[in-house]
Amino acid sequence: MNKLSLACWLFLVLHCMSAAGAQHDKAAREATLRSEVKAAFDRYYEWFSAGRTDLIAENAYNAPAFFLGVDGPDVRITREDVKKRFDTQRKALNAQGYLRSEMLKPTICVLNENAAIVSGRYLRYRKDGSVLGEFGATYIMARMKDGWRVVTLINHTNANKIVTCSK
User: Fold this and answer.
1) Pairing of strands 61-69, 72-76
2) I need a labelling partner for 137 at 20 to 30 A (CA). Which of 8, 29, 48, 72 fits?
3) pTM (2 decimals)?
4) Distances (CA, A) of 54 to 11, 36, 85
């Protein structure tokens, strides 16, 4: 093999290794972001189940926050507005014997370094262990300087209609 052929072969090998490394780095970064989103989302569900509307407003949701439900859009401009929305919701749920919510298998789609979608079917349980309701929701999340926050919540009319993420 002459020096030119060897140089070309070496260039190709190094280029392929570099491309494979870049793919691995990209996949690793996406996995890290997905873990961050899941951790923030799990904290939100813990706080919601515990009735910690203060923590939800301060740490889980952005202000302004957009809520898109069957009754139309609801925009909450301040953190206090977000808290009031969750206080009202919790009062109604508590009157029905609410205990906790659980999204069993959320789909998490990382769109870029600062945006992700979480979608899935979730269950609400009563204190007696019975199911209060089955619902679907999609959350649009953004990475802020202090972590991942929900910027939009979309409630689904069909609990089984969820947003999926292609690879």
Assistant:
1) antiparallel
2) 29
3) 0.83
4) 57, 21, 11
